[in-house]
Amino acid sequence: MTKKNRNPVTTRKGLSANVWTTIAVVTSAVAVTGGVLVVNRHDDLSGPRPGTIGANVLNPSGSNALTAAPAAVVTVVEFIDYQCPVCEAYYQNVTKSVERDYAGKITFVARNFPLPMHPLAVPAAKAAEAAGMQGKYRGMFDKLYGDYPTWALTADGQNVSEDAGRAQARFDTYAKELGLDLVRFHADAESPMVGNRIDRDKADGSEAGVTGTPTIFVNGTRFEPSGNTYAALAKQLRGLLDQALAQ
């Protein structure tokens, strides 16, 4: 089975009930058939489905763009939780390549939506926002997801970690690798400005109908993934982008 076909549970062998529970809560309609991810992601099927959401909610001034196109016809907004294993799997198998392949064509915005079952989600969001205040948001974003097991999971890789000290040590390493002023990085991470940014992201996400992560919007319309592999999800998302770019 190739990496693109692996699901966020089986990509890390031996994950405990802790992570199984996290994934079940974060993505409430995930099934595994024959070891392959099957996604029909609806966080709350009993509630109303949002229509097109305005840019003032999804992409307000000052939002962090991973890629930006001058006069972008297409804007993608993803609400994320840095410690969410499904978000990391999407990053590895779907969105990282979209950011690369559509650079200069679309604007791709990341918004924070830390979930309460992930104790390190807020510290990670603070690290990303603090890096952004020194112009290195995307660099920190890539390091947090690219090096996910070393801070987000326990040392044995079997549980979601609660070790804030271990995580902060990794965040400091990333900050040094990105050439950040470490004293400023620490001060910014704990500043009211960063806290307010995270709170606003969460409030905007809730207003847009976000209840789990990852949740993606393309030009204000929620992306509803279907398919039984990450390759299928990536193809579906790319199809929407190509269609929007062609209009």
Q: Could you name the key traits of this structure?
A:
247 residues; alpha+beta; Glutaredoxin; 8 strands; Thioredoxin-like_fold
What this model shows, in words?
This protein is an alpha+beta fold. The chain has a single domain, classed as Glutaredoxin (3-Layer(aba) Sandwich), CATH 3.40.30. It contains ten helices and eight strands. It has helices spanning 17-26, 55-58, 85-101, 121-132, 137-146, 149-152, 164-177, 182-189, 192-207, 230-246; strands at residues 30-33, 36-40, 64-67, 74-80, 106-112, 215-218, 221-222, 226-227. The strands form two sheets. A five-stranded mixed beta sheet has the order 3-5-4-6-7. The chain has a three-stranded antiparallel beta sheet with strand order 1-2-8, covered by helices on one side. A hairpin with a 2-residue loop joins strand 6 and strand 7. The N and C termini lie far apart (37 Å).
Strand content: 5-15%
Structural class of the secondary structure composition?
Answer: alpha+beta
Count of helix runs = 10
Q: In which range does the helix fraction lie?
A: 40-55%
What is the strand and helix layout of this fold?
Blueprint lengths: L16 H10 L3 E4 L2 E5 L14 H4 L5 E4 L6 E7 L4 H17 L4 E7 L8 H12 L4 H10 L2 H4 L11 H14 L4 H8 L2 H16 L7 E4 L2 E2 L3 E2 L2 H17 L1
Parallel strand pairs: 4-5
Antiparallel strand pairs: 1-2, 2-8, 3-5, 4-6, 6-7
Organism: Amycolatopsis albidoflavus
Pfam families: Thioredoxin_4 (PF13462)
Protein name: DsbA family protein
